[in-house]
Write a structure and sequence with these properties.
The chain has 729 residues and is of the alpha+beta class. The protein is built from 24 helices and 13 strands. Strands 6, 7, 8, 9 and 10 form a five-stranded antiparallel beta sheet that branches. A hairpin with a 2-residue loop joins strand 8 and strand 9 (461-468). Helix 8 packs parallel to helix 10 and helix 10 (240-268) crosses helix 22. The chain is elongated, with a radius of gyration of 29 Å. The two termini are 16 Å apart. The relative contact order is 0.13. The model is unreliable at 1-10 and 712-729 (pLDDT under 50).
Length: 729
């Protein structure tokens, strides 16, 4: 007869811990190799990414692809020659000489400047007459060395009183990659020492504190390897890398913190190092596995979308979660084998009376007003998100010190005829047909402020630049997009541009968002039901998570749309949020918040199963888990804040949003709202229909693990750890 699952699964985890301890040198060598290879290919990961991945099968993306196929150039490098009148002889001579030299360089398709005559040359002059552009279009086969030669020749344009700034789409793409890589390294350099200091304070020793940091570093190496592999089978947007890195760092530190904390408890019980490692992996290891599952479920909702950025984040995020779990279950036990003697066990048992227990009792005496105040505060903090504007930021994701952004901003403000149009219509047909459509249909639509001349891309593809009234990505521009798609004049056309990209993404969100939310909600409800046996607490947990997420998104709106603390944080507000950031914040923050929810509910459930009443179980549950939840949350906030200190706007938005989400969840929600709500519901917290109770009795997860026996008597009566040790019974 096969062994029951509650014996098999913990036995396997205990065996894993035992094997990692016995073969710790091989395990450490394997992870050192993973880290070394990850570091070696780290730069190549950024080189393999794509800056500005097109948005799946959207019409705006298809139109961009049609233009790219008709004009298969690599892109352009543009120089702004500024500070001296365009018609100054010295400036004319310097620019003309440079244009002649550039035209002879390999890989150059064409060179445009302000001195070649015609309407196109006039557009290359600034509206104030003190700056001009030199634009170089490069062939698709141009090498990096050839592009560098073009950039160097443009930078060498020398005229008294004039200065040159180099930009263009090719420069922007490279700067996005470089800045993202720099921000990722900066985040790691800032956060790891700070987390080490905090963990020294938590554990009271350097040996125990250093293990989570070492585990996190190794996990980052594994994450780089995983993303490098994904970059060969799908387009990985450059912004995915820091997002995945920050998740990997946070989770790795979190999981290693749980493992080391449990190891110290087992040592406090009198276990030897080998036995403590084995028991830690069987108990805290189960916690880590369950936590990783909850985060992976939240990230899996992103697979529902067709947007390649979201799918890439889902793939990279789930793989990073797997790597973080693997490091916690293998590398950390091996490291405990090396450093176990230097990790101090607790000197005394964790008291059942303390700050968290006293806080819960105060909350329970005023449960109704506390719950109402918390809900009101969270709803008020989340209200600004209702007025959030979604935007495609373009060059604005870079800091203002970036040369590529400076050139882009200069063109927008001083070269109006060359500034990117809010809406572009790509027409597959003759230039004459496109012109007729522009004159008879496009120019007469409400909200259209003007139509630029039709620009032929090839014999059968042309573009029409459409100017709109008001905000280039505002409601009027979106209305123009809808009108253009409703009346195509009998032609095959694609409406593209920034406004069209936002419209497409919002349509994707409206059509597929509910399915993604449903997947995450159902998966989370099932997991929490299997853990608690209740249908009330999973639903309550979802609602509380939504409130804390709303608070995070509201803060994101106030900071990045309305400009609160923009000077302190070092960015220029763009008037909205990057389109996909709220979706990513929801997925990441939901998974992390549910993680802390499980920490607390599992401890409360354990105490209830031991016979405690509802109020006492909540008091003791928070007292015994509050310290570990607070410590883990503080470390997460440090990691997210470190990345928020970077320069890339998207990374900054993610860092701020996640830091706020974790901070609010670990304090206002877990310490006040959860105890208040559970006190109000009483025994109804554990209600479930009879059929589900039978299902839970058979398949539910229990707070019991058949641990390997201790060979020595208990030295210190340390209570059970605040982690979940879930098994089936």
């Amino acid at each position: 007869m096969p062994a029951p699952l509650d014996a098999v699964v913990p036995g396997r985890l205990a065996a894993l811990g035992r094997a990692c301890f016995r073969h710790r040198r091989w395990v450490l060598a394997l992870w050192v190799a993973v880290l070394a290879v990850g570091v070696l290919i780290g730069g190549r990961v950024f080189d393999s990414t794509v800056a500005g991945t097109s948005s799946g099968g959207y019409e705006s993306a298809r139109g961009t692809s049609v233009v790219a196929a008709a004009d298969p150039s690599l892109g352009t490098v543009t120089a702004v020659v500024d500070g001296k009148a365009v018609d100054t002889p010295a400036v004319r001579t310097a620019v003309t000489a440079a244009a002649g030299d550039l035209a002879k360089l390999p890989g150059v398709l064409s060179v445009s400047d302000a001195y070649q005559g015609g309407p196109a040359a006039h557009a290359m002059r600034s509206s104030d007459g003190t700056a001009s552009l030199v634009s170089v279009k490069l062939a698709e086969t141009t090498t990096s060395a050839q592009q560098n030669a073009v950039t160097q020749r443009l930078a060498a344009i020398a005229a008294p009183g004039a200065h040159v700034t180099i930009g263009g789409d090719l420069v922007l793409q490279q700067e996005v990659k470089n800045q993202t890589q720099s921000d990722t390294k900066f985040g790691e350099i800032v956060t790891l020492p700070l987390t080490l200091v905090v963990m020294v304070l938590v554990f009271g020793g350097l040996a125990a504190a250093s293990l989570p940091v070492i585990g996190a570093i190794a996990s980052v190496g594994g994450a780089l390897l995983a993303m490098f592999g994904f970059s060969h089978i799908m387009d990985i947007d450059t912004s995915v890398l820091p997002i995945a890195t920050v998740l990997g760092l946070g989770l790795s530190i979190d999981y290693a913190l749980l493992m080391v904390n449990r190891f110290r408890e087992e040592r406090g019980h009198g276990a030897g190092i080998a036995a403590a490692v084995e028991r830690t992996t069987a108990t805290a290891g189960r916690t880590v596995a369950f936590s990783g599952l909850t985060v992976a479920v939240a990230l899996s909702g992103l697979f529902v979308f067709t947007d390649p950025v979201l799918r890439a984040v889902a793939a990279a995020g789930v793989s990073v979660v797997v790597i973080a779990v693997a490091a916690a279950l293998t590398l950390v036990p091996a490291l405990l084998g090396f450093a176990g003697k230097r990790i101090k066990p607790p000197k005394k048992a964790e008291p059942d009376e303390g700050f968290f227990a006293r806080t819960v009792r105060r909350v329970q005496r005023r449960a109704v007003p506390v719950a109402l105040v918390c809900i009101a505060l969270l709803m008020a903090a989340g209200a600004p998100f209702l007025g959030a504007n979604m935007r495609s930021s373009g060059a604005s994701v870079l800091p203002v010190s970036s040369a590529g952004r400076q050139v882009s901003d200069t063109i927008d403000h001083r070269f109006p005829q060359l500034a990117p149009a809010p809406v572009t219509v790509v027409v597959q047909g003759s230039a004459q047909a496109a012109t007729t459509y522009a004159d008879q249909v496009v120019a007469k639509l409400p909200g259209v402020a003007g139509v630029r001349a039709v620009q032929p891309v090839s014999a059968d593809v042309s573009t029409i630049d459409v100017l709109v009234q008001g905000d280039p990505q505002g409601s009027q521009a979106k209305h123009v997009v809808d009108e253009l798609r409703a009346d195509r004049g009998g032609l095959t056309s694609y409406v593209t541009g920034g406004a069209a990209s936002v419209v497409d993404f919002q349509h994707e969100l409206a059509s597929r968002g509910p399915w993604a939310l449903g997947l995450v909600a159902v998966g989370t409800l099932i997991l929490l039901f299997l853990m608690t046996g209740s249908v009330v607490m999973p639903i309550k947990a979802l609602l509380m998570n939504v409130l804390s997420l709303g608070c995070s998104l509201g803060a994101l709106t106030m900071v990045f749309q309305h400009g609160w603390f923009s000077g302190l944080l070092g960015f220029t507000p763009t008037g909205g949020l990057e389109t996909f950031i709220p979706v990513l914040v929801f997925a990441f923050a939901f998974g992390l918040s549910m993680d802390y929810e499980v920490f607390l509910l599992a401890r409360i459930k354990e105490l209830r199963d031991q016979g405690y009443g509802c109020k006492e179980a909540v008091q003791l549950g928070l007292q015994r888990s509050g310290r570990i939840i607070t410590s883990a949350a503080l470390l997460m906030v440090i990691v997210f804040a470190g990345f928020a200190a970077g320069q890339m706007l998207m990374v900054k938005q993610m860092g701020i949003a996640l830091a706020v989400a974790v901070a609010v969840d670990a304090t206002l929600v877990r310490c006040l709202l959860v105890p208040a709500a559970m006190s109000l519901f009483g025994e109804f917290n554990w209600w479930a229909p009879a059929p589900l109770r039978k299902l839970y009795a058979r398949f539910g997860l229990r707070e019991h693990v058949a641990l390997p026996p201790l060979d020595v008597p208990t030295a210190i009566p340390v209570p059970r750890s605040p982690e979940r040790t879930l098994t089936r019974r």
